[in-house]
Amino acid sequence: MAAVQQVVEAIVGDITTAVATEARRRCPVDTGALRASIRSQVTAHGSEVRGEVYSDLDHAAYVHQGTGIYGPRNRPIQPRRAKVLAWPRPGGGTVFARQSRGQRPQPWLLEALEAVATGRVDRRVVY
Predict the structure, then answer these.
(1) Model confidence, pTM
(2) Could you report the per-residue pLDDT of 115-126, keeping only the tens digit for each?
(3) Domain spans of the chain, in order of start
(4) Which phi and psi (to 5°) does residue 9 adopt?
């Protein structure tokens, strides 16, 4: 039985590594921190073998799932304590706004899984 477990762990490890590699390729890049943070691991508990691909950066979920009207809450981003929002403009300067529509989702991790998977991926259970 131990030999079967080792074979299963090796297969799950190969698939997990392939998904992580594809995720790095598909990940949107601004500074490169998100791409560099992508990790994978395989764990075994009894007869269950699990492969995980993840990023531990706080903003990874926001990039993947979207924000504002495009994200899970489906509403504009508004300031809580101030009168306006402010964020740095790419290339220099600052943007000021009373609200923001948010960022469209860029599901690079889900797309990587779909590219590597041999079967259909149920998008409802991935998150």
Answers:
(1) 0.82
(2) 998 888 777 755
(3) 2-66+105-126, 70-102
(4) -60, -40
pLDDT in tens, 7-17: 989 999 999 99
Which run of H or of E encompasses 40? strand 38-45
**If you average pLDDT over residues 40-56, what whole number do you get?**
93
Structural contact between residues 76 and 99, judged by C-beta atoms closer than 8 angstroms: yes
d(CA 34, CA 66): 15
Q: Which segments of the chain does DSSP mark as H helices, in order?
A: 2-26, 33-36, 60-65, 108-116, 123-126
User: How far is the C-alpha of 62 from the C-alpha of 71, rounded, in Å?
Assistant: 8
Distance CA 16, CA 3 (A): 20
